[in-house]
Specification:
6-stranded mixed sheet
Amino acid sequence: MTRREPANPGLFLGIDTGGTYTDAVLWAQDCGPKGEIVAKAKALTTRHDLAVGIAGAAGAVLEKAAAAPSSIALVSMSTTLATNALVEGQGGRVCLVMIGFSDADLDRDRLRAALGTDPVVFLPGGHDVHGNPARLDLAALEDALPGLGPTVSGFAVCAYFAVRNPGHELAAAELIRDRTGLPVTMSHELSAKLGGPRRALTTLLNARLIAMIDRLVAATEGFLAGRGIAAPLLVVRGDGALVSAAFARLRPIETILSGPAASLVGARHLTGLESAVVSDIGGTTTDVAVLEGGRPRLDPEGATVGTYRTMVEAVAMRTFGLGGDSEVRLEDGGLAPRLVLGPRRLVPLSLAAHIHGATVIEALERQATARSPGRLDGRFALRTGVPERLAAGLSAAEERLYAAIDGAPQPLDRLLASTVQGVTLDRLVARGLVHISGFTPSDAAHALGRQTNWNAEAARLGATLFGRRRDGAGNPIAPDAEEISARVLDAVTRRSAEAILETALVEDGMEGAPTVAHRLVQRALDGAGGIARLSIGLDRPVIGLGASAPLHYAALSGLIGNACVVPQDTDVANALGAVVGQVRVTAEVQVSQPQPGRYRLASADGIADFASEEAALDEAERLARTAAAARAAEAGADTVEIAVARDIRAADIDGERAFVEAIVTASASGRPRIAR
């Protein structure tokens, strides 16, 4: 195919790396009011080597469009890898360094649960609310570093009131980098909000994600270099804004909800709808958010992913562990146990057989011919293929089991000899070292012929094995593969409706109430008859996104009481959203009054005192503008517009105004720099 060199290069390459597929689009900005998708393609996400999936999808669109390397003006990417990792409880092993905190602080904001078995070091130090320091003692950290360095992939450092004075975090980070050379995340870099334990949680999660996002960016950069593409590379942040790849590498936590945020931008672009509920179903998660006035609502309290509330500003989106690759299991107890989907992602049996061939089929056939069903039938373990250095710190039992999983997928009925080994396997999965393969909705779709990407024989065998499981009365739960597969697909549609309605009810202020789980809501969804007629619905349409949306959302409108719009190119909405957004960053500076007549300014540069409120606020605005401009340039913006807001909090004491504190926020936004 002959390549054509356009007279006015202006093609934008968008890439979205999801849990199952990597999507790519080539978009021409100057073709009509909405631009034009010149080409699109998909490839399997290859977690063992992300570059393979990226090259498969991005390489395909370049070939389809016969696009020369010099015609690519911008490359932008979104990803759900960080979101999926947090939902599934995965990530690298890191050490949390807490300065000025106690062990009791781990019990706030689910910090202890997030920490799990990762090490933590407590140090004396920190600051008060006005930035005045306590005595810092780094001796315990210095003593621990020789033993910690070889067993962790990075460090997270959080000091008491670091947002008012980052000095102690900087000192600890310098020591760690000097002694270990490992990446360090400091809490003051990620958020200017108060709330130490939640800031520590955000910092911990960021540190866990660094290696993952670094591998993703490096894989993309390697592909671009190999193709001779010199365009800037940007990444979608969780609020839908674009930032440079270098910016995202340091703050990977800000890419949680990156893929869903890009999908919102893409949904608005594809449909033109100003008001809608957007539901994006992928392999691992379903992400639901609200469009209002053409813009996504942001969550002022910070993004919630899985069970963790972070301090990351992102779209007000609820993430559910529901997707095409969700684990299908039976509810515990009951004579007629219902199907439960997710939240864990499994490698579909049809995909495992597609990649590994006869190994998977032979094991499934052996299990299917057994006289009675086995507890571990239709389950395999396989390595994720991450670098060996990320397997540091395994116990002896973990090392033995990890070694046994090397090579082809291992059937669990042959791999595991005891319940204890099953617990060990779960720990390897949580570390992101091993995947479990099993029956999923994707397999159900293959078994019914509604999906044809992978190995249908493995899907049917997996469905048959799952259908042989027993209910409370000892009977098989389904007579054949077709019936259980149809029930699984119906369950995906029903659970999708519940996720959408739950999001709507929370947006209406009903968070914490029983909401969708309430018997009345369930009766309305069931369409149950009775003297009292019950119904529930949305006041706006749903935009269904994702490659499997046409399958799973075909019957959705009857459950949500409104239209469900599945736009053309819904399968690459994330990748499209990655290239039609803007760079947007903020910078905050705080002003407090430690004593009458003294106004203290606290920024990332340190603290300074002023004699008047106005002088302190003027300097705060200057610093915020400067920081926002610098951060926008670092994030990849071309020319930017900066808006400044002052949030001044004062009290009325005996009729006199008394200044308490102020937060000055500068917001910089603009289009990204492109190759000329």
